[in-house]
Fold this protein.
Amino acid sequence: MSTSSKQRIQDEPAFVLHSYPFRETSLILDVFSRRHGRLAIIARGARRPRSALRGMLMNFQPLLLCWFGKGEVRTLHSAEWQGGQPYLQGTALMCGFYLNELLLNLLARDDPHEQLFDYYRATLHRLAHETDHAATLRCFEKHLLQELGYALLLECEAGNGKMIRAEARYRYIVERGAVPDDSDAKIGLPVLGKTLLDMAADNYIDPATAQQSKQLMRMLLNHHLGGKMLHTRELIKDLQKL
């Protein structure tokens, strides 16, 4: 049975990705839920001063939500804060908004991604406790594309299946993969074999890997976003060059 045909959902783990006012006292929430994917929910009366929901429906905080309805916008019945996630601050907060903007633009409605939900929750924890935010973002970007069916080919050359060599130079071509950088046709993004192997291992310690992986992920994400600019990415780039 599809999500849209279910009358009531109980105690569903979820995060609020975005919210905006609706009429005088309500909110429209764009949430990422574990078993039902991304969906829109109206929280009636959530902006009233005495509402039990006021101050609870925050970004980056784990919630258990109950909702009902069959339409494009469901209706929130109740919400329970789960705790355990420190509040993000500073650059970590901006990185969190970047993750949310990626999910809002790349996830289809009502398309469950349970493993991605769990990885998103773990990534928020990393942002709160670790300082290498750039590495955290690269790991999430790679995992997101994999979950959406756009996995990067990082250990084998495109077309022939030969193993990537750390000492070799390649060009990474969108929707194809890495090809040896030994031809006159200079298409794709230049990248070292070591960078591709480091990315496969989620190892971003090498400064060259950190720089080239950022360029590669930006090229791939821009392709899948259809060229749409992410506002949080531009702000983070200006602030920290992540």
